[in-house]
TrEMBL record:
Superkingdom classification of source: Bacteria
Bias (Low complexity) ranges: 49-62
Species this chain originates from: Streptomyces cellulosae
Listed name of the protein: Glucanase
One annotated GO molecular function: hydrolase activity
UniProt record similarity statement: Belongs to the glycosyl hydrolase family 6.
Keywords carried by this UniProt record: Carbohydrate metabolism, Cellulose degradation, Disulfide bond, Glycosidase, Hydrolase, Polysaccharide degradation, Signal
Coiled coil: none
């Protein structure tokens, strides 16, 4: 495992979803409410010299486009204006060029480890806190096991359930070959041809309603472990995956791996993202960051805007941030495995009030262990209670 990586420990398909709550509090820590989440494990935090993603604290090389500054959106080209007009058919175009979701609520999947625990432990004194602050909120549903024969039906079960409620599901595709560079979350498809076929089957279950796909956490930020040739082939497969997903359902938002604010410099990450198709409207709606990690929301917002500025592409590209466990920020010692003193972060919402930030999501389910407070990916009520109280 690379020291700077965000490790996801996958045990199986994570089933859980985030609820639609509009959080406009300035604090990272969530207010007393509840949510449910996915069936998977987290990405480790990284030891960083500073919690700030500001240019002065990063090793970013000189900007290729010095006229661009974080937070400023370039004047859209003729092609970008046409693309925005097309997107407006399925949503409301915001002032910053991104397209707002038509649905206002995120989908909470009725099956998750935390919900199973809540149903089975009605007399537990921790129940009220865990139920109200974690189990009642929507969280992402992970598809982390390579099962080609069932993936279409399993994806369809989530998307159809969400469509019936008029809500937006968040699905995590996590089966890239060589996953986690052979570390704790190793696994995935046997090769890229098999992965491409798995993505085709995944896309077949997306339906026609709005959905968010978090495409392969760590697959780009952690690509340093791959040879140049293997990295190029992986990125080509990811670009193809985005195109397939969006062709199957044009209302699906596909977001690519930006790592987090304590990992790669924004310019480097943007270069890799561009190679993986993240700058093309045909395959991408932007980037995601902080999945299963702990970095503060403000740091992620600043970092994601830097990445988007360096990435280029349509003005409609945005970012989504995993806020599930970042209420107290990342541990100063860089510990990633169920570190103590962490808190749940801002509740999931599609209305962030932040330019170019499309959503705050709970991609990682609070309470699912990284492997130090229980088996990797399993729900730990004591850990959940510590995060939520």
């Amino acid at each position: 495992m690379v020291a700077a990586a965000s490790v996801v420990v996958a045990v199986g398909t994570a089933t859980g979803m985030l609820s639609a709550l509009d959080d406009r509090h300035a604090s990272d820590e969530a207010k007393p409410e509840v949510s449910s989440s996915p069936y998977l494990a987290p990405l480790p935090a990284v030891r960083t010299p500073s919690a700030s993603p500001s240019p002065s604290a990063s090793a970013s090389p000189p900007r290729k486009n010095p006229e661009k500054t974080p937070g400023r959106t370039p004047t859209p080209t003729k092609e970008e204006k046409a693309e925005r007009a097309e997107k407006a058919d399925n949503g409301v175009v915001r002032e910053n060029g991104s397209t707002a979701f038509v649905s206002t609520g995120l989908y909470r999947h009725p099956q998750s480890q935390v919900l199973d625990w809540v149903r089975a432990n009605s007399g537990d004194p921790r129940l009220a806190v865990i139920a109200s602050r974690i189990a009642d909120h929507p969280a992402a549903v992970w598809f982390a096991d390579y099962t080609p024969s069932t993936i279409t039906a399993r994806v369809r079960a989530v998307t159809s359930g969400a469509a019936a409620q008029g809500r937006v599901p968040v699905l995590v595709a996590y089966a890239i070959p060589g996953r986690d560079c052979g570390g704790a979350s190793q696994g995935g498809a046997p090769d890229l041809d098999a992965y491409d076929a798995w993505i085709d089957a995944f896309a077949a279950g997306l339906g026609s309603a709005e959905a968010v796909v978090i495409l392969e956490p760590d697959s780009i930020a952690q690509a340093e472990c791959l040879s140049s040739g293997r990295r190029s082939r992986r990125f080509a497969s990811l670009a193809r995956a985005g195109r397939v997903l969006k062709a199957a359902n044009p209302r699906v938002r596909v977001y690519y791996d930006a790592g987090h604010s304590g990992w790669n410099a924004a310019e480097k990450q943007a270069t890799w993202l561009r190679q993986a198709g993240a700058a093309s409207a045909a395959s991408s709606d932007g980037v995601f960051s902080n999945v299963s990690n702990f970095h503060r929301t403000a740091d992620e917002i600043a970092y994601d805007r830097q990445v988007l500025d360096a990435l280029g592409g349509p003005a409609s590209l945005g970012a989504v941030i995993d806020t599930s466990r970042n209420g107290n920020g990342a541990p100063p010692d860089g510990e990633w495995c169920d570190p103590s003193g962490r808190k749940i972060g801002r509740v999931p919402t599609l209305n962030t009030g932040e330019s170019r930030i499309d959503a705050f999501l709970w991609v990682k389910l609070p309470g699912e262990s990284d492997g130090c407070k229980g088996s990797p990916g399993t729900f730990s009520p004591s850990y959940a209670y510590d995060l939520a109280r």
